[in-house]
Amino acid sequence: MEGKNMCGGMEGEGGCPCMKHGMGMCKHKKIFKIVLLAIIIAAIVGVFCHSDRNNSKDQQDTIVVSGKGELTVKPDIATISFSVMEENMDVSKASDGVNTKIAKIIATLKADGMSETDIKTTGYNIYPRYNYVNSKIYPYGGTQVLAGYDVTQSIEIKIKDLTKAGKIVTDLGTLNVTDMSGLNFTEDKYDDLVRQARDQAITDARDQASKLAKALGVRLSKIVGYSEGSNPIYYDRVMSAAPMAAGKSIEAVLPTGENKITSSVSITYEIK
After folding, report:
1. Please, which of 50, 118, 135, 176 could form a disulfide with 158 given CB 3.0 to 4.6 Å?
2. What pTM was estimated for this model as a whole?
């Protein structure tokens, strides 16, 4: 029995009638392909829409709150840095000169009540120094001639009794030290104070979150984000130079002021 093709024509009757009219492709086949493509596109769009709906369900609403903690404290220690330098054509003699000066400084600091454990070397350098003779291009050119060796030792001290800070600074000024700097008043247990300020900031952030959740009519869930930043602020710092009068040094006056230590945190909560 002869079958019919999809255009209704008999297989034995010369095929699809569309082909008899010179068409390159049966129009019914074209329609079939278009319908099939539309069904595939609709299926893909449906999958994406379903995925988006699932993602929207997975996303949680959140709120972000900030908190701040602050401590104002009196400093209980001071740190000072300085150097001792000696120059000589003989490097060993330059080193011996530095050693002699350092020994005298340590003896003086101990007499002022400091412990040797609070006196620390932070650097020791030996540099050859050159002069240039018959130089046509100042300061270089010509012949390089050794002028000597510079030996420098750098020291950092920690003053735990601030009532003696003025006398120590003044005594250092009479002991041929150089580059004395960095008189910083700070706290011996600074890290503990930073943690206290951070704890205050976290408590403040929690309080802010509770108030905000109540105002919005929502409930707080788990914490999904946290960040913090601490920045100590120093102020009221005055360091007076040690003036000289009639060949005798006058003790330096060193107000310590106060330190303000602040901490800020940001916490992200899920809400229901």
Report:
1. 118
2. 0.60
